[in-house]
Write a structure and sequence with these properties.
The structure holds two protein chains of two kinds. Chain A is mainly beta. Chain A contains no helices and eleven strands. In chain A, a hairpin with a 2-residue loop joins strand 5 and strand 6. Chain B is globular, with a radius of gyration of 14 Å. In chain B, about 0% of the residues lie in helices and about 60% in strands. In chain B, about 30% of the residues are buried. In chain B, strand 7 and strand 8 form a beta hairpin. The chains are: A mainly beta, B mainly beta.
Chain lengths: ~110, ~110
């Protein structure tokens, strides 16, 4: 199993550009999560999904959108990138009935 | 929103020393988790605590779930170079069947050989 994978690893965007951060898992996770981690801070939840077709907002959803058309994939979309979205983004997955969230390696995004 | 205060923010110790860090909250959590993050990687779960007062070990790591359910601590005994990294506490909440984690700010551990 590849686990939780994220692409790209790094990206630089200009203000106003859009992009999609990809997240995929092959561990049969019902639940998937997107977090952002700012320097010197813990992770903050952006969006989460409890299964295919179901998504909900987390703590800091503004400026982001998600979709969950399949169980395996949970892409995060930035429509109009802003400098405040410069951060490291982590995707995580969890199986129903289990407690552990498995994290991907992260995407480091810089918006200039 | 719920917040976790983790301390200390950073630690500089000698190899072989013991380490202690803690996490406090104004809210009650039913589960406390401790994660470690290596540079350029995502967090990895170290220990999960499910009951107030619970003391759990994982090798040289020991963590306790506070009686009030508003705090937790993590101890590392006889530190070694591979213990370097950022340690996060997280409290778990259940919202409409979905598990959400609230993270502390992290404790950055540096070890001098």
């Amino acid at each position: 199993n590849a686990g939780v994978t994220q692409t790209p690893k790094f990206r630089i965007l200009k203000i106003g550009q859009s992009m999609t951060l990809q997240c995929a898992q092959d561990m049969n996770h019902n639940y998937m999560y997107w977090y952002r981690q700012d320097p010197g801070m813990g992770l903050k939840l952006i969006y989460y999904s409890v299964g295919a077709g179901i998504t909900d907002k987390g703590e800091v959803p503004n400026g982001y959108n998600v979709s969950r058309s399949t169980t395996e994939d949970f892409p995060l979309r930035l429509e109009l990138a802003a400098p405040s979205q410069t951060s490291v983004y982590f995707c995580a997955g969890r199986q129903g009935g289990r407690n552990e969230q498995f994290f991907g390696p992260g995407t480091r995004l810089t918006v200039l | 929103g719920q917040q976790l205060n983790q301390s200390p923010q950073s630690m500089f110790i000698q190899e072989g020393e013991d380490v202690s860090m803690n996490c406090t909250s104004s809210s009650i959590f039913n589960t406390w988790l401790w994660y470690k993050q290596d540079p350029g990687e995502g967090p990895v779960l170290l220990i999960a605590l499910y009951k107030a007062g619970e003391l759990t070990s994982n090798g040289r790591l020991t963590a306790q779930f506070g009686i009030t359910r508003k705090d937790s601590f993590l101890n590392i005994s006889a530190s070694i170079p591979s213990d370097v990294g950022i340690y996060f506490c997280a409290g778990r909440v259940e919202v409409q069947g979905a598990q959400k984690l609230v993270f502390g700010q992290g404790t950055r551990l540096t070890i001098n050989p």
